[in-house]
Amino acid sequence: MDCVELDSSELQANWNQMLYQVSATFSMLLLYALYIVLFTFSMYTVIRQNPAGRRFFLVISSIMFLLGTCDVIVSVFLVGIAIKVDKAQVQGSSSLPHLLQLYNTFFIVDAILMVANNLVTDVLFSYRCYFVWGLRKWVLIGPGLGMVATVVLGSFTATGSESLPKIIFLAPYLTAVATSVLLMCLTAGRIWYIRREAREASGRTFYPGRDTAIAMIIESGSLYCLAIIVWVVAQSIIYEFPNSGPESVYIFFGVTSGVWSQIVNIAPTLILVRIGLGKCQWIQDSTQSHGIGPGPMTFGQNSNIASRSIGNPVHTVDFGSVMEMNDSNSTAFTRSK
Q1: Is Transmembrane helix tagged as a keyword (predicted)?
Q2: Which of 194, 198, 240, 256 could anchor a disulfide with 231, C-beta 3.0 to 4.6 Å?
Q3: Is 337 domain-assigned?
Q4: What is the distance between the alpha carbons of residues 296 and 191, in angstroms, rounded to a whole number?
């Protein structure tokens, strides 16, 4: 029986890669199951309540779900290929080069899917910011530049050589974090400003609905950013052990990769779910009859919030100007973002 001479360093590198892929896929599948539930509920909410921008949210959410599903499928394929690579190396099979090339190809596809998925999520967050700022286009300049930089750098590193400096590989993730933080601050900051204007106009000091809206925005943005930051930390650790590091490092890296790949979809979907539970509303005004877009915003903890002040005027903010609307003449419906 012929003996096969194995390169221990290559064997360890392929073994670590398999551990990474199995860990990533396992954590991805767990969160994907949760995402399916959240996605189904959010779609039901958007369709049932017919909020402003329903078509946009249906399209964007469907694209996110499609990309997330494709990412899971590719990841499962990568696990199978990684196992075959280890088996072919141990057996000295001539198919090893082909399997390695196939793995690298699918790995690039997986990276490109993540870039696209991240872009769609940023578009959804930008749409929310655009509405909160009263359809002011200039507010999207900064986030737009950040999204373009993330896509360009992400596409470059996905198809680039492994010999690229670490900072180049981490650059798209850093720009993604910066873009997300900027959108979060712009949106939450604008709602805080609206809350302050409403307080000065009405004399009220307690607006639990707007506080809830700010908390929702910070919650989703922080969850999204935290997942990327933890992944960047794991990636930095991996650079210290390129091929022969501890197995626990590669398992940790795989788990963070799998978590981030699904959090990028779960974070914005959570907002749709919470809105479906009655956390946020729009007040309809004349701009909607002309198809311009949603009117002034109001945030409530349930769909009956207006009934608390029947007979009294309700103070709302029309994106920069304070206006008083009579509660009996206002029409409320749930906002989907």
Answers
A1: yes
A2: 256
A3: no
A4: 11
